[in-house]
Every structure is written in structure tokens, then in C-alpha cells.
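thread: overnight batch results

M.L. [08:02]
morning all. the overnight job finished for the chain we discussed friday. pasting input first so we're all looking at the same thing
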Amino acid sequence: MPFPIKVCVICSEEFELKPDKPGFANRCPECSLPEAAEDLATKQHMDAEERKTTKEANEARRQAMRNLLYRKDS
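M.L. [08:03]
and the structure it wrote out:
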């Protein structure tokens, strides 16, 4: 069974959409690779204060969602 032929949204070239292709399904492998490299380069390490702030914000989000989903309407 042949792989589907797609057209890249960036460079407008045709490519075969193969399973386990890295990147996006609407981009060719050449256009997907630079973005994956940028994600690794821009990922920065957080210090303790930033981790604590992020943890508190995530906990507040979880609590708000829990209250919205499971509150009892009287």
C-alpha cells in the first residue's frame, strides 16, 4: 500500500507521508527538522523560584477545573 502524497505548506513540494515521520503531517521532513532543532535550543532551565511559580499556577488551574467540573449545583 503506497503512502499518501501530501504537499508541504511551507515549500509547496510534494512528499510521502510515512509513519513515524518527525514533525508535522503537513510539512515535508526538510521543513520539519529546523523547528524541532529550535525547540531544543530555546528550552531553558528554570531556577527554583520559576519552578515553584509554575507548580503553583498549575495547581491553581487544576483546582479551578476540578471546581468547574465537579461542583454540585444546588
